[in-house]
User: What shape does this take?
Amino acid sequence: MGTSRTRRLPANRPIVEPLENRRLFNVSSVFNVNRHLETYIVHQNGTLTHTEDGGAEQLIATRPGVGVRVVHAFLAPNHRVALDVVYDDGQAWEYTSSSAVQVANNALDMAHAITASGDFRLDVLISNSSTYSPGPDQTGTLYTNTPAGTTAGATNVRWVSDYIDVNGNLGTAMGVISGGNLIASRTDSTGTFALYNAPDAATQDVQACVQGMCQVCGQ
Assistant: This one.
């Protein structure tokens, strides 16, 4: 009578990936002049892709060998879609249909909005750390550029998003760490509104939602 053997499977030890080492998923959408929805997606491997009206994704060539941290889409004065892109090394670039300009170093986020009359707001979030890190949970000081000049604003800011509100005016949404919580709010011509108040942990999902809401509805 034969004996049966039980096959021993190799041990599988679960590994928890450190949250601070994960790249954040970022989406920004804007309606172009033909009212087609253009969506720009930063994937966890640092690549940037583009879709129009939910079609097939197309890879966008960026700086060779450097991953993308965050992207914001907006309409330029010529009614063409333009991009604010912050890279993993802290360089912030603005891409229009006719130019590519580096705006800042040591940046965590950047957003731009321009009204039909030409009024604009460009927010650049500069890291508070002397050692730049592209990971999540970073904070910085917000620098706001308008036709009146450049001013330093809130500190301990996690993210920022500029947009055009329902009345065609400038609006800004941001997340600020305060009292151990992420306080997300938006301000535009319709008023100031609290969007979210959460422990300083799972905060980046809020950024994705607010950016999507502002860019899609605002533009």
Q: What stands out?
A: The longest helix spans residues 204-218. Confidence is low (pLDDT under 50) at residues 9-22, 202-219. The chain has one helix and 16 strands. Helices lie at 204-218.
